[in-house]
Amino acid sequence: MKPESIRIQENINLHYFQTEKFKTSQLSLYFVTPLHSPYAAAHRALLFNVLRRGSCAFPTQRELGIRLEELYSADLSTSVFKRGDMQVLHIGISTLRREFTRDGEDLLPGATELLSELLLHPLTDRNTGVFLSDYVESEKKNAIDRVRAQMNNKAYYARCRCISLMCAGEVYGINEYGTPEDIEKITPASLYGAYRALLSEATVEAFYTGSSPAETVREALAALFSGISRHPLRLLPAEPNPAIRRVRRVKESTAAKQGKLCIGFRSSVRLEDPMRTAMSFFLCVFGVSPTSKLFANVREKLSLCYSCSAMSESAKGIMLVTAGIENRNFRRTVREIFRHFRAMRRGKITEREIELSRRILINQFLAVADDPLLLERWYLYRELAGVAETPEEAIAAVEKVTAQDLRAVSATFRPDMIYFLRGDAAETAEEEDDA
Amino acid sequence: MRDMTRIRDKTLREEYTYIRHESGLSIYVFPKDLSTAYVSLTVHFGSLDSDYILPDGRAVHLPDGVAHFLEHKMFESEDHIDTFDKFAAVGASANAYTSNELTSYLFSTSSDISAGLSILLDYVFHPFFTPENINKEQGIIGQEIRMYEDSPGNRLYYAAMEALYQKHGIKKNICGTAETIATITPEMLYDCCRAFYVPENMTLVVCGRTDAEAVLSIVDRHLSAGERTPLPTRVYPDEPAETAKPEIRFHMDIARPMLCLAIKDTVPASELDAEERVRRCLIMNLLCDLLFGESSEFYNRLYGRGIISQDFSASYESALGCAHFLISCSADDPDEVFRLLVEELQAYRSGERYLSPTDFERMRRVHYAEYIKDFDSTEEIASALLDSVVEKVALFRTREILDAITYNDVCREISTVFFEKNMAKIVISPIKK
Questions:
Q1: Chain segment A350-395, per-residue pLDDT in tens
Q2: C-alpha R_g of chain A
Q3: I need a labelling partner for B164 at 20 to 30 A (CA). Which of A68, B1, B14, B297 fits?
């Protein structure tokens, strides 16, 4: 499925998908800014949470909630994530198509009105002209609690720690949710300033998937952005990965039953690189599917773990290999993971492994068209990387990947950090590590 | 003449076909024009089925975790070719899961489903267990158990079940424990397969770009009318009305305390027929959302005071022979939240607070919309179909039952369930450092 690209304004684009295959229509806005300071990142991350608390027409969260329910349980979602050295704020609304409402009611006008309300008419204090202190203080507390709650999911926490240690000093190392210290410093006035700055400075990639005409959607978005004075910031690709002198090792401890291992690798290959397809292929063969080297060996053959897999951040060129293991199997698991990594480097990949991964990857790319969110992310990531590629074109590229291509991609990887979060509630003691 | 029925819902613009195959297998084919097809072959055997009586009169008691262990081991085959590889070779991605009542083997694919369906019908009916492959799995499942032991949500749920239920098997961990799975032998697993992994105890659900004829042509190649062995008689413990423990408290390495208020339903599921059970479930979920959902007065009042935040959730669930409400959240003062919840329920019971008909109609609209949205994914459709088989109420009938529920139906239940003697408090506190 290829979108129709419609320019709303300079640095505001609509990617429009005409389809009747879903029972819902989805309208999403992605506000993209450079990730340049932890203080600014903390402000932006908090923003949509405060906007949702109140606007002129819906001064309380409850009134907004009731309005969404009246719109046939319209699904309003907001999120923050990092993409290379960019911070992305997402706000989206999904509504039932008119054919499925009781009286054929078109919900798009209600949806765009709501987005407009939240983005352009936030509730402000009559005296100060900025956000309400109550709303800002309570959302600051929620944000800090959420950051502190990362430790509740040990696997996620281990990944966050690995990235934060590995990329300390790099732009990518900036926490996209804000640190508790930076969140604490936010005031209603500083947040309001960040809000005005976002509307002015962010590049906006809008997506619509549904059956309303393109012109209707374009008009609604043009109206939404018409009153805003715009000075978009330039978006740059992520900083190159630094040269690696030696593999760093960090161990931390937590009162958990299971240890969590996270190994960070760097590669020069990113989404904009022609080797991107070979990279996805590499990941699949090495550690993404049940047919991968990591699953088949570290889990199935050696029973060292229930989950062992690889994931990547293709805008930055980072791969993380993670596993949940007993403390005493730390050294053995690291050895095994590197053994299979070296096998990839030496081209010790069978024809069967390659063909299985080819089928799996094609399957994955075909599935993109089944989910509006997957479609949005596919095209957003490529838009930010300056790449034009449909899932169909990616499939054609997957068909052509050879063992030689995989060797070439393997050669671009360097291990950077071995991070281990020891599970100290486990009975067995950990082996001593090598000096 | 094949027993084949087509069921259509005009509002939804969807239809499916049900076939009772001569082998005894129940088949549901739901055509859907999406790229990814989803296929599951499910055995009606789950973690609750630890006690049963064979046709010859022998009583069997299984250690906890057998159904889940069996699910893991089904992927082994005598030809030693990895089952995941077989699926991948035909463009299919395989998986499986075990629940209280079911073990489900599934795959998804954007290629033609025939090859994948053939593999599925082959491996699930050809178990292969050896002491070596069982031993290896104990290590893997051991790590899976540890992973769940570190999950606060998982621990909170099982503590709630332990508090509410004296005997019901829902409080048992589906994976079992390292000790219980250590006692599993190949013979035990083969016996379970002989007793439960038979077509008349199984359901095949296919959702995607296909039709009944195409599916049947594959099924016919693998299964035929055969001698039907009677199914074992499952034995479930009698669960008393009273809860087991009023309170459970423990520590974990988490950032803030977590609370769960668990409420045991007063009407035993055994007293209701299938439609009444589904109706009760819909009414209770409407009630739950009205009292504690995101648009509720309670949620917004406490959120505004900073007592709770977005992770607050409330729901009603039912399984075989049990039903309960679970209201959980993280909170700086979990006992205060518990007190406020109980106070709120008392206020509704006494009539001091009450629901409005407008709120009810709006919530019914929400549930209707959520039901429609489920039909956008082959996986969700297949899951809803399977649920309807377990509940013994046809898929499209749910919406009709929802349409017939009234404001009075919901209000009436306020005085039937929310008694303190049916409640339990679970608190997880952070480890002091």
A1: 999 999 999 999 999 999 999 999 999 999 999 999 999 999 999 9
A2: 23
A3: B297
**Closest residue by Cα to residue B141 from B176, B106, B111:** B176
Gyration radius (Cα) of chain B, Å: 23
Catalytic residue among B14, B15, B22, B71: B71
pLDDT over 70 at A432, yes or no: no
Which amino acid is located at B135 in the chain? Answer: N
Two structure tokens written together for B29: 């084919």
Write down the residue that tokens 């067995």 correspond to.
A428
Residues in chain B: 433
- Check: CB of residue A164 under 8 Å from CB of residue A173: yes
Strands ordered across the beta sheet of B423-430: B247-252, B423-430, B258-264, B322-330, B313-319
Tell if the CB–CB gap between B88 and A360 is shorter than 8 Å: yes
Phi then psi for residue B158, to 5 deg, are: -70, -30
Closest CA to A131 of A139, A121, A123: A123
Alpha-carbon span B127 to A67, nearest angstrom: 54
Residue B163 to residues A127, B40, B171, B331, B352, Cα–Cα distance (Å): 52, 34, 9, 20, 29
Residues 6+ apart with CB under 8 A from B150: A154, A256, A257, A258, A423, B252
For A192-200, which contacts have Cβ atoms below 8 Å and span 24 or more sequence positions?
A192/A124, A192/A129, A192/A130, A192/A131, A194/A40, A194/A43, A194/A44, A194/A47, A195/A47, A195/A51, A195/A122, A195/A131, A198/A31, A198/A33, A198/A44, A198/A47, A198/A89, A199/A119, A199/A228, A200/A228, A200/A229, A200/A230, A200/A231, A200/A232
B361 counts as catalytic: no
| pTM attached to this predicted model | 0.94
Contacts of A163 (CB under 8 A, 6+ apart): A172, A173, A264, A318, A320
| CA dist., res. A296 & res. A137, Å (int) | 49
- Using the structure block, give the residue that is written with the tokens 């959607």: A217
| Helix, strand, coil in percent for chain A, rounding step 5 | 45, 20, 30
pLDDT digits (tens, 9 = 90+) for A221-268: 999 999 999 999 999 999 999 998 899 999 999 999 899 999 999 999
Look up residue A163 and give its amino acid.
I
For tokens 């290590």, what's the residue? B139
B430 and B252 Cβ atoms separated by less than 8 Å: yes
For A81, phi then psi, to 5°, come to: -150, 170
* pLDDT given for residue B77 in this prediction: 86
> CA–CA separation, B318 vs B290, rounded Å?
19
| Residues of chain A contacting B86 with CB distance shorter than 8 Å | none
Nearest CB to B150; choose among A102, A154, A290: A154
ipTM attached to this prediction: 0.93
Q: Helix B274-292 to helix B397-404 angle, to the nearest 10 degrees?
A: 60
User: Beta-carbon neighbour count of residue B104 at 10 Å?
Assistant: 21
DSSP B150-165: T-HHHHHHHHHHHHH-
- Measured between beta carbons, the chain A residues lying within 8 angstroms of B371 are none
Neighbour tally for B113: CB within 10 Å: 26
Contact A60 B152 (CB under 8 A): no
Q: What is the enclosing helix (H) or strand (E) of B51?
A: strand B51-53
Q: Which of A61, A252, A227, A241 is nearest to A166 (CA)?
A: A241
Positive or negative CA dihedral for B139, B145, B149, B153?
Answer: positive
At B76 the three-state DSSP class reads coil
The dihedral of CA A344, A350, A353, A355: what is its sign? positive
Q: Give the best residue of A99, A363, A422 to mutate against chain B (max B CB count within 10 A).
A: A363
Contact criterion met (CB < 8 Å) for A60 and B300: yes
Contact A50, A32 (CB under 8 A): no
Strands B247-252 and B423-430: parallel
